[in-house]
Every structure is written in C-alpha cells, then in structure tokens.
Amino acid sequence: MYEIFGEMDSAEEINAAARGLKDEGDKENLYTLAKENGIDGAFVDMYLDGTTGNLCCDVATAALGKIDVEAAVLKPVEIIADWVEYIKTLCSDDEEFAQAVRRKGKSLKGCIGSLLGWSFKARYKVEKDIIKAAGINNASVEMGIPGMGTAKRLIREYYLGGGTGK
After folding, report:
1. Which of 56, 87, 151, 155 could pair covalently with 146 via S-S, beta carbons 3.0-4.6 A apart?
2. What does the alpha-carbon distance between residue 40 and residue 163 come to, in Å, rounded to a whole number?
3. Percent of the chain, pLDDT > 70?
4. 163: pLDDT confidence band, cut at 50, 70 and 90?
5. If you average pLDDT over residues 30-52, what whole number do you get?
6. pTM of the model
7. What is the mean pLDDT of the chain?
8. Can you give the residue ranges of every domain in the chain?
9. Which residues are 125's β-sheet partners?
10. What's the burial of 106, exposed, middle or buried (CB within 10 Å: 0-12/13-18/19+)?
C-alpha cells in the first residue's frame, strides 16, 4: 500500500515530499507519491503546471486519499461500506478528525477491527422465533452489530481517542 514512500502522517508531509520531487524534476515519482496517497493524477498535473501551490490541497484531501487507498485493499461491503462512508463524511466536515485519520498508525483496518471487537463482545442470542422466521432450522444464532450511534462513537474514539482496535 505504501511501498515506496511509506505511510505519511499529514498533508504537510505529503506536500513536503512532493516539493522535493518537483524540485528534482522527478515527475514519475511525483505521480507515484500521489497514487500511494490516494491523490488523483489531475492534482499532480495542476501542481506541475503551477495551478496549485501544493500537491495535496488540504487536510481533508489527504485523509480521503488515505481512506480510498485503504478501502481499495479491504473492499468493504454492506455495513462496513456504510461505516467507511461515514468516516469519509467526517473527514470532509471535521478538520481535526481528518488530521487524525491521516496519522501514522491509524488505519481503516484498525478502525473496522475496533468495531468488530465491540461486535464480538456485545453479541447476543437471537430469539428462536426470529431464527425460524429467517428459515434457519435447528441453529443457535448470535448477533452483535453496533447501531449507527454506537458505530459513530467507536469510529470517533478510534481515530481521536487513541484506540487501537486490539
């Protein structure tokens, strides 16, 4: 995922690396840096032609890029995809949250792991009539998916509160 330039901690760190590459005339690695950080190649073009002063326009762009790169690896579906969209919304709406998402050591995998850990601990037996209505016979079923309020709290705690998901 971050094979060449490593995980970057902030928009400022991405921009500093981009400045160095631009100063060296290393366009190829400038595109690689952008790709590793989920930044569209069009931003590289605008940066190279002087339309923008930085590769990464702002904190939200850096955070959204990181989420996009990590989501491409995880391929989230259903409720997990909903959680990812909520994280992206927070990145767009809350600069402090976006900075926290960009931090080294914080990852979408860790955040989803935190939610899964809560789910496992909070599981409960599903009532037999519900299991029967689902067409499942002779089975014991447990669930533990957090409601959106709990999921939102857990997501914020993971990124802003230092949670590791372990």
Report:
1. 151
2. 30
3. 97
4. very low
5. 95
6. 0.86
7. 93
8. 86-166
9. 142
10. buried
